[in-house]
Specification:
mainly alpha; 335 residues; 21 helices
Length: 335
């Protein structure tokens, strides 16, 4: 803010300050900064583009397009203006291919890794994975440390069943940029896909050290410890996650799974009823416990209660059909 106050009118400090306000959720204040700047300097394109992006976020698509066109009329190859215009078209509901054409034209004019990256994202929106991978590879060739492109490539590697390739990319990235916690999290997913559970635990511990109050990472640790057969440690991590505010359904379901594995059905029922008893999810989990106990009538009753409370509870419906089928109650299952 101080830098903006001291800066010249046509200064990036004003745009930077507005961007910070947007990140803090102070959109109206950001708009005021940018509107004042564009009124005094209507040809200061960074401010015009930043204001157009705010209008896009607010779904004022036509106003955003009008501002972007004022930039592109003067400078048709402005990468940021083209990128945001493509995003406006996408947000308006136009086909990803229409938005991609704008970036394809720009990509032929100038070779920028950011343009290739955003074009790859549009290709993915359109289901064109091969084209997306090719553009991401081009982006990385131009900028080897382009973290967003490397992470998206790693995501595609994992999806394609090539976790080792993703691991190689992410380990190199983290050697250069160890502060990238999102890359650390993705590396954990790649390790898990490759069956390297000890390495997954290392990644999770790094995340917990960085964000000790994040319930989701404690939950991830509990889930991993279960896979490793370390049940007591898993229970301890799950209890921590619960104290940090983890969804009661996730807590109840994980405790229930461990109880069922140990054939401790009394504890399973208690863990569910004490946390989410009487809810549709509570009846659903109670039904699963009865199924594990081979008490099919009781299981069916609980699943029916779950569906009565929430007719869209697809998991309860699926298991109710499964129970009826096991009981040869085909008419009820069909219904």
């Amino acid at each position: 803010k101080k830098a903006a106050e001291l800066a010249e009118p046509r200064s990036g400090a004003h745009v930077g300050y507005a961007s910070l306000l947007v990140e803090q959720g102070l959109t109206e204040e950001a708009k005021a900064v940018l509107e004042n700047l564009t009124e005094t300097s209507p040809d200061y394109f960074p401010a015009v583009i930043a204001l157009a992006d705010i209008l896009r976020r607010e779904k004022h698509y036509e106003d955003a397009l009008k501002m972007l066109e004022s930039v592109l009329t003067s400078y048709s190859g402005n990468p940021e203006a083209v990128r945001i215009k493509a995003q406006v078209l996408l947000d308006k509901g136009e086909a990803p291919a229409n938005a991609a054409r704008l970036l394809e034209d720009l990509d032929r004019l100038i070779k920028l890794p950011q343009v290739k990256f955003h074009l790859a994202r549009l290709y993915l929106e359109d289901g064109k994975k091969m084209e997306a991978r090719a553009k991401l590879s081009e982006a990385v060739a131009l900028s080897p440390n382009f973290a967003d492109a490397l992470m998206l490539l790693a995501h595609l590697d994992i999806s394609a069943g090539a976790p080792d390739q993703a691991i190689s990319r992410l380990e190199v990235l983290l050697d250069e940029q160890p502060e990238k916690l999102e890359a650390q999290a993705m590396l954990g997913s790649a390790y898990a896909a490759a069956g390297r559970l000890d390495d997954v635990e290392t990644v999770i511990n790094v995340q917990i050290d960085s964000s000790p109050d994040d319930a989701n990472w404690q939950f991830s640790r509990a889930h991993l410890l279960r896979k490793q057969g370390k049940t007591q440690e898993a229970r301890h991590s799950l209890a921590k996650a619960e104290k940090l505010g983890l969804d009661p359904f996730l807590v109840a379901s994980q405790f229930m799974e461990m109880d069922i594995a140990e054939q401790n059905f009394e504890s399973a029922h208690e863990n569910v009823s004490s946390r989410i008893g009487g809810t549709s999810d509570g009846h659903f989990l109670t039904g699963r416990i009865h199924m594990a106990q081979h008490q099919l009538d009781r299981a069916a009753a609980e699943f029916r209660k779950a569906v009565d409370l929430d007719p869209a509870h697809s998991n309860a419906l699926a298991l109710l059909i499964a129970v009826y089928s096991q009981q040869d109650k085909l008419a009820e299952a069909k219904k």
